[in-house]
Amino acid sequence: MKNASISEVSTVQSEDYAELATFLASFPAETRSKERWLGRFRIWWDINPAFAGAPSRGWILRQQEKIVGFLGTIPMKIQLGGKETICFGGTTWRVLPDHRGMSMFLKRRQMQDQKDHLHVTTTPRPEVAKMLELLRYQRIDRGGGTNEQSVVVLNFEKFLRMKFDGRFAGAQIAWGFALILQCFQSLFQCFTLGKSRRADVREISKADRAFDELWERTRSRYLNTNIRTSEMLNWYCFSAKEPAKTLLGYYEGDTLFGYMMLSSSGERAMQIMECVDLWIDPARDEVSTLRALVGKAVKYARRNSFDRLVFPHFNGQTAASYRKLHLLRRPAWGRREYMTGSSGFLENITVENSYFVTAQGDYGL
After folding, report:
1. Which of 32, 46, 242, 306 has the most beta carbons within 10 angstroms of its beta carbon?
2. Any idea what DSSP says for residue 333?
């Protein structure tokens, strides 16, 4: 007879969804509802184009037949060494406080089951990041210039109020300087972004064949990067309502030469929109294409009442292109981004032959 007190790790099946969603919704300090978690499962697995044939959705830790822990995984299509394959993004490592000693059972199971794949973790809590480093996960290295990000401030008064931490005197200063700074930035942007006003940059409601053609023309630029077919872009950009995402495309005639994907963030004191993916055909002038996309992004963000636009420098090339736009530069947000896999994978992933963006792992999903 099986001992009911023994902890067991099993893979997540579709019939586990309801019980698992209840467990996660009731987890200490959790704010998402059961319905929200069920919606995330649908996006992560049921409608994910990369899920077919994936070995697992994740792992459940049970004790006395009750869920006490969970570690999720999201399959993603990626190009490694120039060939399309599947990698996995880690997500939602949750173990009840009384069972934390069993956490590594979940992690070891994940590492064993996915030992032949690249595994990426981009949103770990600080204590989890330390554990990943002990497990010899490597930091994702993006190269020179990526320790900064370019920024467009759309609400200087709120921005300055935050800097003065809400003090009354600070609020008066913020009010006085906000108009001056806004006028200066607007005038400056006329010279830096105004050259793009004739460009055909469109807001895209659904990626189509033009995106597939762009990907086929340009996929050889980097050996290691996300698969950017219309199927994968539509899944990532439009399947989830939160966080809301926007896709902008740069066209010449009917040909797409670049796109920018933006994601909203309401988790900070300011309403922020950040670029999570950028892909430009090097056959066209990259700075001109980027200028046009940034100009459209500024108009979109202002129209939708965002306070700030953030453009991460994904690699040295994008850092150099953003510098030519002369936008405000700030230190990049301190992200905790890690990857692991077989030595064959990691040895062939270098700064020069790889292009990783913010839309890695479970970020934005």
Report:
1. 306
2. P
Query: How far apart are the C-alpha atoms of 56 and 75, rounded to whole Å?
Result: 9
Phi, psi torsion values for 302, nearest 5 degrees: -65, -40
b/e map 59-79, b = 16+ CB within 10 Å: bbbbbeeebbbbbbbbbbbbb
pLDDT digits over 182-196, tens only? Answer: 665 665 666 567 665
Which CATH code fits 7-139? 3.40.630.30
Residue position matching structure tokens 């990426």? 120
Q: E-assigned strands of the chain?
A: 8-11, 58-63, 66-80, 83-95, 119-121, 138-139, 148-153, 200-204, 224-226, 245-252, 255-265, 272-280, 308-312, 328-331, 338-340, 354-355
| CA dist., res. 153 & res. 298, Å (int) | 9
| CATH 3.40.630.30 domain locations along the chain | 7-139, 148-333
**What is the per-residue pLDDT across 313-329, written as a single tens digit (0 to 9) for each?**
999 999 999 999 989 89
- Under DSSP, the state recorded for 47 is S
Number of helices (H), then strands (E), in the chain: 11, 16
pTM (predicted TM-score): 0.91
CATH topology of domain 148-333: Aminopeptidase (3.40.630)
Phi, psi of 50 (to 5 degrees): -90, -5
Q: Nearest CA to 132 among 102, 99, 107? A: 107
